[in-house]
Amino acid sequence: MSSDFESYEQDFAVLTAEITGRIGKVPKLVGDEKKQMVTNVEKQLEEARELLEQMELEVREIPPQSRGMYSSRMRSYKQEMGKLEADFKRSRIAYSDEVRNELLGDDGNSSENQLIKLREERAHLLDNTERLERSSRRLEAGYQIAVETEQIGQEMLENLSHDREKIQRARERLRETDANLGKSSRILTGMLRR
């Protein structure tokens, strides 16, 4: 199983390296080349998401005692994926600004300050969105931990309840044995007196 995971891991590393290179090229290209590059990056990002899903399925198949290492690697791959998607969004924003300017026939000189402000606002909004997504992921992780803790607590309560019942039964048997010993002692004492 771990060999499949490592194979997916290698594919993911190669794919993310290609995506990173292509994302860097998007702002430098023009026209159809740029559109083609954006389409290719979108396809590769989808491939990377599918690889992550496969890797996650493999991690679930790994025995629990060995799963921790793979789970931490998965978290870092997911973070890397999130960063790639954010970088791609930023490059697409630059790309969409250029397309809009081409369509509107704007040469960029008359409203350059406005475009700079818009880009800054968009970058700020993207950063806020990323923060919200990270916070949501942390909340989900915290909720998952709380659910797991509740399950463990429930199991412990059930175990304690079973142990209590065993102790009560043992105590009852001790009382019965004590009573039987008392009877036996009285019978023996009576026999000795005769």
Notes on the protein architecture:
This protein is mostly helical. 92% of the residues lie in helices and 0% in strands. It contains four helices and no strands. It has helices spanning 2-25, 31-61, 64-104, 112-193. Helix 1 (2-25) packs antiparallel against helix 2, helix 1 packs parallel to helix 3 (64-104) and helix 3 runs antiparallel to helix 4 (112-193). The chain is elongated, with a radius of gyration of 34 Å.
Question: In short, what is this structure?
Answer:
By secondary structure, this protein is an all-alpha fold. Helix content is 92%, strand content 0%. It has four helices and no strands.
What is Rg?
34 Å
Low-confidence stretches: none
Characterize the main sheet: none
Give the N-terminus to C-terminus distance in angstroms: 81 Å
Mean pLDDT: 83
The helix/strand order is: HHHH
Helix/strand-derived category reads mainly alpha
Number of strands: 0
- Overall geometric form: elongated
